[in-house]
Amino acid sequence: MTQPSTSTPVRRRAVLASLASGVTVLGSGCASRLRAATGWQSPDQVSLQIKTAPADADPYALRIARQVAEWFRTAGIDVQVTPMAEEELLRQVLLNHDFDLFVAPTPAQFGTPDALFSLLHSRFAGRQGWQNPFGYTNLDVDGLLEEQRRSTGSDRRDAVERLLKSVAATQPFTVVGFPDDIRAARTDRFTNWQNTDLQSPMGYLDLNRRGDVEDASLDGSNTPLDESDADEPHLEVVTTDERPTQNLNPLAVEFRRSSAIMGLLYDSLGYSRNGVTVEPWLAASWAFSEGDDGPVARIELRDDTVWHDGEPLTASDVEFTYSFLADTSLGSTIETEDGEDDSGPVPAPRFQGRSSLVTDVRAVDSRTVEIQFVDCEPRVATRALTVPVLPSHVWADRTGAASVGGIELGGATEALVTNNIPPVGSGPLEFVRNTPRETLVLDRFDDHFLSRDDVDGVPPQLADAPAFDRLTFSVVGSDMTAAETVASDDADVTGTPLGAATVPRIGRASALDLVVRRSQWFYLVGYNARRPPLTNPRFRNTLAHLVDKRHLTSEVFKGYAQPAASPLDGTRWLPSDLRWDGEDPVTPFLGTNGELDVERVREAFRDAGFQYEDGKLVGG
């Protein structure tokens, strides 16, 4: 497999706002010239639309958006807040790039420096998914993202520090804060809730059964369990996210809130338990050597691994997976939206940051594969080993042009639009059935390597995991209903994080455990840097000064969140002068206690090259 060229045809990329590249500080005169150069000289009031999910889908996003809109209006900006279904929000933002601003939580994978590569590098500015949805282009940031891949030790730390400070100054997005992951759980059938992360598949595999068979003879409602339930009880999960019941395509970014279900259905070569190191999983082992253009990994697969349909899993499937993620058309010609044929690659909208580390894959034999990486350190390269391995005998037939109702969709393949039901993976759980918007049922896959008596290379607590023979996800309409469902013993745990408003209800229920842990993901206000005046980094920086993160933490999250100034807050990579210390260290709020100081705000916008007419913010 050879990695496709990174130069994408113009008609399939958004035009990069290159004039903003590398700019971190602009005087008002330079800002005015920048707007003139980008064709934006408007006497009209600055008008922005904020898109976000509705309250029944997200307990925080809409409230954040409305408060931010209120601050923007105080600053003289015309603002509209538009809530929409999560699936449609992600489609408009991540796939179509049709937005001014959006408020949403990020996926959980942005916890290491290299995770920022696909999020911010300009080569991804026209791609779909969480690959630079902001259209952000900054040559300094590009260079630092590339430098941190190649460096080690203090050199890498220095590159990451400069990277984070440049991003904080130019604000492609404004970090609001890291919310606590709040869940309600029962402990009469399963334990270890406090030590698990249910945003990750490993969280489900880490669960323990409550005691021995005799200890599990009651299910909490004084109803005796039957013999099969006592041996391997079912895990009942209640969720407010209906999307996994409708779509199990691991490539469909708009249907994925977390990686948990996909990680239970699909194995990857490696796994990460702590977000720092990657250890072998489907791979029995790997060894790195230095190639001419970057590291090379020789990977040995576990013996006798099979797909859920009984077909053998081989090194050819691994080779196919990386080729397919880079180009889901596998080199076929796909008609674009303007009716022209285009032989350029059609990459998957997920996993591009990780799969782009790979330049070539070769199956040596049925159990051995060699992977060539870009010029990077081996520790960075292992991130590419965490993508799901796909069965070639299923996905190879999905390379043609996508169609809905017989009408072809330009520039997309069938792989990107299929709902992939039933899914065929190799993971520890296999698909049983689904009822869209209601339930999803998965069973333990008895031929998985975790079920073997002689399994090695995995943590001892995962031997013979999972601790259940069936996992059922049931959909309800609200966080409070989810908590009530667990309290009434109709579920074991809430599968999606709950809002802070549910905490008093959980605390009053003696049968429930309140499980609270800091999440690895954060809420952000994302800016579309393709659209003026958001093309101007000084304008985005000034907008960030209008967001009182401490106020949002108190009023919206009820204290169950930590305000932050950087996407790597809480990691060892955060430099001391980007740590939260009562206020944002880079873009402090222009006011106090949630109230803007209008004169300071107007002065800041004037310094950025804007003007006011009758209290309305207008272009220069």
Automatic annotation (TrEMBL):
Gene3D superfamilies: Dipeptide-binding Protein, Domain 3, Periplasmic binding protein-like II
Occurrences of domain Solute-binding protein family (ranges): 277-615
Keyword Transport: yes
Residue ranges of the region described as Disordered: 213-232
Keywords for this protein: Signal, Transport
GO terms, biological process: peptide transport
Annotated TM spans: none
Single GO molecular function: peptide transmembrane transporter activity
Family: Belongs to the bacterial solute-binding protein 5 family.
Protein name: Peptide/nickel transport system substrate-binding protein
Organism: Halopelagius inordinatus
Lineage of the organism: Archaea, Methanobacteriati, Methanobacteriota, Stenosarchaea group, Halobacteria
